[in-house]
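tool_call: predict_structure(chain=1)
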Amino acid sequence: MATVEISRLIDERKVSGLQWRAIGFCGLVALLDGFDTQSVAFAAPAIAKDWGINVASFGPGFAAGLAGLTVAALSLGVVGDRVGRKRIIIVSLAMMGIFSLLCARAGSLPQLAIARFFVGLGLGGAMPNIIALTAEYSPARIRSTLITCMCIGIPMGAVIGGAASSPLISAFGWQSLFIVGGILPLALIPLIMIGMPESVRYLVSVERHKAKVRSIIARIAPDLPSDVIVTRQNADVAARGSIAQLFSDRRAATTLTLWFVFFCNLLVMYLLINWLPIVLTTAGIPHTQAIFGTVLFNLGGAIGGYFIARSLDKRQSDNALRFAFFGAAVFIALLGFAMTDVRLALALTFLSGFCGMGALFGMNALTASYYETEIRSTGVGWAHGIGRIGSIIGPVVGGALIGMGAETQTILLIAAVPMLACVAGLLMLTRIGARQADFSPSKLTGAH
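tool_result:
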């Protein structure tokens, strides 16, 4: 009777239609994630005008959604390793949809903050699981690229939201953004239930659902016999979805360093994502161009993420990530001194996104490669969860600085510093890899 090892099968074959479908569905979830994450930032000026409040008071409102993201990333990634990626993705979409609709009915900032917290639970639960599912259907030779292309749905969702926000708000009010952001996730649920396969590596690792495994293998490799026995590597991983596993087998230093980089990166990214339109407007740039600046920031992240991921796959090195983080620090700092020239300010905004957000997508791919199937959602989820603590702090700090009347240059110079800390963190990862060759990034791009 024929035997095949699942990771080797996926790595050595061309990407099948079933794999593309699974990754495509993950990309659609990421697209909705990006739309819903930034909808409150696009709606904030109109809400502030409608309710007669200062935009600086939106810091806690922004932070509430990010708090939900943090809680879900720390918990639902672990659950995804235990019950499967697909179930958690469906539950997450339901939470995104229902509570986005409730955002449209909010009549005060506390009500909006509560609804955004539960939207954040959905957003945070989806992310580690779509990253894990994409990684597990991707061959090692292009895994970073496919994970990043999937994650590019996030900034593209924000781009769509930015492009749609002005006409929607003008025609139907700020509530329309949340209504659209609620209907779309709910509409996607039945399509995912029918069309998206569970991760085959997950199904093999739990040693159940043999009929499902054979059905998926028949789509990936139709030339194999129907009674083929599917095995897996790393069968001795002790605890599925165990946080302790992130610190065992010499993973502790790597895990903590990844957490540090995500914390610093997300602190800056969410400070800019939430406050950039207001910072640009305060500096004298017209509101429509300020929103366009946010669109450029996200578009830059999408393009930058692709090129960084291609470098990770081709060179098996994190050098591109180091250069990207350093570039982000430079461009963010320069942006503060370019507000008198709208074209230059928008160009620097694009480059800041290209480097800073692009590096974030590269980190998603790198982190997924460090952990085996049994703990991949846990590893990615906890890295995102710790990072989300930074994403909560960032908007609050931004709101405090704006409330104190800090100059734009000061705000953006402060924002540049954590990007340099990310460079230091990647250098530390390289030193850890040099001491522990089995856990270097070049080895881990083949983790199963």
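agent: The CA atoms of residues 100 and 339 lie 34 Å apart. Proceeding to next step.
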